[in-house]
Design brief:
The protein has about 375 residues and is an alpha+beta fold. The chain is built from 14 helices and 11 strands. It starts with a strand and ends with a helix.
């Protein structure tokens, strides 16, 4: 049981008890909003959500392994509040529990991750696919799908400085990445002055125009069918011979209507192997070499997806359906946010990196399963 000390100081017997107390309240709030437990006597939605969270914290590979761990570890079972759970019951809960129960917890963690200092102006947009079996996905969706299209797509907006997740969107099957940008960049998010890096998968003129309208900047690669008409050349820097062209012109060509034309900058860089990389950007305050180097920072979001799949162990959805897929991804994102919170504090002050590796934070969380949390950890989780 959690104990309350005098004042605002709070003590816990174990770090996992702190994680349970952090997550249980928002999960119960989400379940109450959806009236999810009106006919539930055992295995409430909050207990189910905690079981999914600990599935990824413990680095397990299947629901069967989770059920075995819950059956063998009585202390963990008491923490979550699930006793006598059967192996066959967890897959049923993936379909019966509403996905909306995760919303308050995700919102709380993302708000907790907001930086105290001035926010970074560099963000990356990208997506990754979690593969499903084609036959099983077609069975649950009611239509035939090709094997390469069988999967769930996670699109995300990630801060390039502190690896902080800002927005995300989950969809089933394949599709053009740019069709989800309205969910990734909602109108209520003030993006004026921010710079977004994305690859050719988000090639969509109306998306570019929307960023310009909202006074945001972007750096992206040229797609094969992009049309650009140069109007004014920018002098090249002799210190960077790899930059072979730098000019300002109209993206889309003069054939477009006046309100559809976009004045952007084009930078062409020649690589050592002879390949030419063409970038489009609205940043006029940078040199051509800085624009090319800026796009390379987009690799940070690939590291974010790699962390999810390797360290958090988000290999594939734990069920074959929309709800199981959503539950799986959302639980993994909760664990990632928890690890990012704990990564803001490290017991080794010799390591002066502002954000330690997420892998070390998750390993520390798993290793100190029932140990008393330290003051820095409780402060990062929001208890102090």
């Amino acid at each position: 049981m959690a104990k309350f000390a005098r004042g605002r100081t709070r003590s816990f017997r174990s770090l996992y008890r702190a994680v349970v107390d952090l997550c249980r309240g928002p999960l119960e709030e989400g379940a109450a909003a959806e009236n999810a437990d009106s006919y539930v006597k055992r295995y409430t939605s909050a207990d189910f959500g905690l079981a999914m969270i600990f599935h990824f914290i413990l680095g397990l590979s299947s629901l069967r392994e989770l059920a075995i761990r819950l059956a063998e570890d009585s202390r963990l079972t008491r923490l979550i509040g699930m006793r006598g759970i059967s192996t066959s019951h967890l897959p049923k809960l993936l379909h019966r529990r509403p996905v909306e129960l995760w919303a308050p917890l995700i919102e709380k963690l993302l708000h907790r991750l907001q930086p105290d200092a001035a926010p970074s102006c560099l963000w990356a947009i990208d997506s990754t696919t979690l593969t499903l079996g084609a036959k099983l996905l077609a069975r649950m969706s009611g239509r035939k799908l090709e094997r390469e299209n069988a999967g769930a797509k996670l699109s995300a907006v990630v801060n390039l400085t502190d690896k902080r997740l800002k927005q995300f969107h989950i969809s089933m099957g394949s599709g053009h990445d740019a069709q989800y940008v309205d969910d990734l960049l909602p109108e209520d998010w003030e993006i004026s002055g921010l710079t977004f890096l994305f690859d050719r998968g988000y090639r969509k003129y109306c998306f570019y125009r929307d960023l310009i309208r909202r006074r945001a900047h972007f750096v992206t690669r040229k797609a094969g069918n992009d049309h650009f008409e140069p109007e004014r050349a920018i002098p090249l820097d002799t210190e960077h011979p790899e930059i072979i062209a730098d000019d300002i012109g109209i993206l889309g060509g003069t054939a477009l209507k006046d309100h559809e034309r976009m004045l952007v900058r084009r930078v062409i860089k020649r690589c050592d192997d002879g390949e030419e990389l063409v970038f489009f950007t609205t940043r006029l305050d940078l040199t051509a070499a800085e624009v090319a180097a800026l796009y390379q920072q987009r690799w940070v979001i690939e590291i974010f997806f790699r962390w999810l799949k390797s360290n958090v162990n988000l290999k594939r959805p734990l069920g074959y359906g929309v709800e199981p897929t959503m539950h799986t991804i959302l639980a993994a994102l909760v664990v990632y946010c928890l690890a990012l919170l704990l990564a803001q504090w490290t017991p080794s002050r010799a390591n002066k990196r502002p954000v330690p590796l997420i892998a070390s934070s998750i390993q520390r969380l798993r290793a100190r399963l029932y140990e008393t949390p330290r003051t820095g950890e409780l402060r990062c989780l929001g208890f102090l």
